[in-house]
Amino acid sequence: MGSKRSExxxxxxxxxxxxxxxxxxxxxxxxAGAAGDYDVIVVGGGMAGAALAxxxxxLGLKLALVEASSWHADAHPGYDERTLALxxxxxxxxxxxxxxxxxxxxxxxxxxxxxxxxxxIGHARLDAxxxxxxxxxxxxxxxxxxxxLIGRLERLAHVTLLCPAELEHLSPGAQHCEVTVRVxxxxxxxxxxxxxxxDGARSRIRTQLGVPTLEWSYGQTxxxxxxxxxxxxxxxxxxxxxxxxxxALLPMEGGRCALVLTVPDAEVEPVLAMPDAQFQYLVxxxxxxxxxxxxxxxxxxxxxLKLVKARExxxxxxxxxxxxxxxxxxxxxxxxxxGLRDVAVLAEVIADxxxxxxxxGSSAVLTRYADWRRWDQxxxxxxxxxxxxxxxxxxxxxxxxxxxxxIGFDLLPPVKRLLVRQLMGVAGRxxxxxxxxxxxx
Length: 441
Description:
Layout: E1 9-10, E2 17-18, H1 24-29, H2 31-34, E3 36-43, H3 47-56, E4 63-66, E5 83-87, H4 88-97, H5 100-104, E6 108-110, E7 112-117, E8 123-127, H6 128-131, E9 137-141, H7 142-153, E10 159-162, E11 166-172, E12 177-183, E13 186-197, H8 204-209, E14 213-229, E15 236-241, E16 247-251, E17 257-264, H9 268-273, H10 276-287, E18 294-297, E19 301-310, E20 314-315, E21 318-320, E22 326-327, H11 335-355, H12 363-392, H13 396-411, H14 413-423
Parallel strand pairs: 3-4, 3-13, 4-10, 7-15, 13-21
Antiparallel strand pairs: 1-2, 5-9, 6-9, 7-8, 11-12, 12-13, 14-17, 14-18, 14-19, 15-16, 16-17, 19-22, 20-21
């Protein structure tokens, strides 16, 4: 990733087709690479889609990855300035994909997680040493992860990258799906045994297929920024619940912290417009003085919070992964990690199907994917949604119950261990990528 390519590159047979700003003439030149039959077409080149294409490389599949945005770290909307909390399980998946080394250089380990409820005695602390791992997870910029994924993608020999290109229409069929893709001013017809929808929370594929969703708004917005506290964070991540909404601080390099401040929707604009000193005071009031005073705050951005869950993990010959399958509240930092586990499981199901000479887009194969993912998705979505609702409830009996729960959680090692394993993304049956092992090679 990085600097823009000086020319479009078309490599047939031995490498990908990469298009940066594809003019109609260049699109015509790529027709041999773009049109025709594929085994798998992944729609969406964000982190989930890119990771899946990398995972499937080397399995003997003919793959296409369709992405609407320009293929650059500084332009792709999926690889923006956000900071992500990566679970230990996600680190292992990135190991299996061969990209962790590129991410690790700019990732900050989380060695402890401190959970508290402002104004109450309930408190819990999670420690990587209790799990026998060097970290519970890591903090990395989305742009860093994107650079590692795209850098790996551009070296793959059997993935056709169509970018920028937009999905116009998808027609499901018994033996394959017909996909119409717009590249510049030209339309191309593609066909695949399996289509993977990795096209985000507003999935066009999900809408075209009429897949129902469970959806509601929390009436909250996450305001994100980098902040610098007076004292060193010591590689501790903080999750603090307040009457105004949860607040998270994630450790970063240089003594900085990534802040996720939840505010009611009606207060978003005033919070974004605050002078830095006033914003720092707001954060200070809600977080307290555990890290001393906040001495600096970076640029703020806002992200409305809602839950979106597709009621089907697969529909015909289409599988859903990442935000196309579920979009969560950022509390506990589980959304991206859940999507990456979708990738690991779907890749394994496809690999096993190929080894058994099965059609990777068949009902039997995609049902195995759906069945495997159902428990993890339900547990993670249920957990995050319950946290939001329980800690937002001002009723005294609920406050008492949640504080007793935090105290009990910290005093019951078996319960704590089970929950921590879920937060680390290592609970339940693990796919090979989840163990840090590649599927091919």
